[in-house]
Write a structure and sequence with these properties.
By secondary structure, the protein is mostly helical. Helix content is about 70%, strand content about 0%. The protein has four domains: about 15-85, Annexin (Annexin V, domain 1); about 90-145, Annexin (Annexin V, domain 1); about 170-240, Annexin (Annexin V, domain 1, Orthogonal Bundle), CATH 1.10.220.10; about 240-310, Annexin (Annexin V, domain 1).
Length: about 325
């Protein structure tokens, strides 16, 4: 499995952590909480640094930051800022567990949480899942999912066994053949998406368009339906540019009858540090203006904090 490895942060700076802990304390001191200040502090650090800030806060003030945030905040803004200062991989594992708990699996959420992982993310989330629930993540997903087309992709993405195929022309021809005829050979799509590096996959995408006069995305939309279409398109976008996949999930969270706050909080917590500002604005363009959509769907301090975390304020 060769996919985008994600960011592996270095050692946090102790002085910055202490200053941030002090600023957090000041933002929550007195009669009212300054939610915008909390959002700006969170936006100034990567996820490993935010964990260090949380630990420093405990050392300096003798009480856990999570407890103070929960005491001072409510609703979605509480969920957002509490998660921002936690181990994001533990949050990821918790949401995966929630998606598979109870009488039925939330298949849509399982797709969204799984097909947005880098290699490093898969490793870290799997470790947290094992620690938190004493279960193997891959085995649990296998037991909770069917043999549907989307489930094959999720399992292949998490397993990522390389076949060594790296010729873009060969892969493009295989995909075209797999999409031809009466039925789609989804196993070929799984093999290509789960084993090609992003660089090779981008070449495959270009070769496919040149050879057959249509995009891979168009073929996916034609050959798959429902959750499988959603899954293969999300994976396709991630391989071309992770910011496109993140934009897809942001759009999913903010369109339709109501806001999917759990998804919006997760995507912001996990990815805003990588794709904020102009990067996410450009990637989101196929769906419209991201700032307008945030302002349309959210209100008040929740809107302010989300705008700050994505670099729009």
């Amino acid at each position: 499995m060769f996919r985008h490895p994600g960011a592996i942060p270095g050692q946090p700076d102790a002085n910055r952590m202490q200053n941030a802990a002090r600023e957090l304390y000041e933002a929550m001191k007195g009669a009212g909480t300054d939610e915008k200040a909390l959002g700006r502090i969170a936006a100034n650090f990567n996820f490993m640094e935010r964990i260090a800030v949380s630990q420093t806060f405990q050392q300096m003030y003798g009480k856990p930051l999570e407890g103070e945030l929960k005491r001072e905040l409510t609703g979605n803004i509480e969920h957002m800022l509490v998660d921002m200062f936690q181990d994001k991989y533990a949050v990821w594992a918790r949401l995966l567990h929630k998606a598979m708990a109870g009488a039925g699996t939330n298949e849509k959420r399982l797709i969204q949480l799984s097909l947005i992982m880098s290699d490093y993310d898969v490793q870290q989330v799997s470790q947290r899942y094992q620690m938190m629930y004493q279960k193997d993540l891959y085995s649990t997903i296998c037991s909770e999912t069917s043999r549907s087309d989307w489930a094959k992709l999720v399992k292949g993405w998490l397993r990522g066994n390389s076949t060594g195929i790296a010729d873009p022309n060969q892969i493009a021809q295989m995909l075209h053949t797999a999409a031809g005829g009466a039925g789609t050979d989804e196993d070929v799509f799984v093999e290509a998406m789960c084993n090609a590096s992003p660089e090779v996959y981008r070449q495959v995408n270009a070769v496919y368009t040149n050879m057959y006069g249509k995009t891979l995305a168009d073929t996916i939309k034609k050959e798959f339906t429902g959750k499988s279409e959603d899954a293969y398109l999300l994976c396709h976008q991630y391989l071309l540019n992770p910011a496109l996949a993140v934009s897809n999930l942001l759009h999913e969270a903010m369109h339709g009858g109501g806001t999917d706050d759990e998804l919006l909080v997760f995507v912001t917590m996990a990815f805003s540090e990588f794709f904020r500002g102009q990067t996410i604005r450009q990637a989101y363009q196929p769906y419209g203006d991201i700032e307008k959509h945030i302002k349309r769907d959210l209100t008040g301090k929740y809107e302010d904090v989300v705008m700050i975390l994505w670099g729009f304020k």
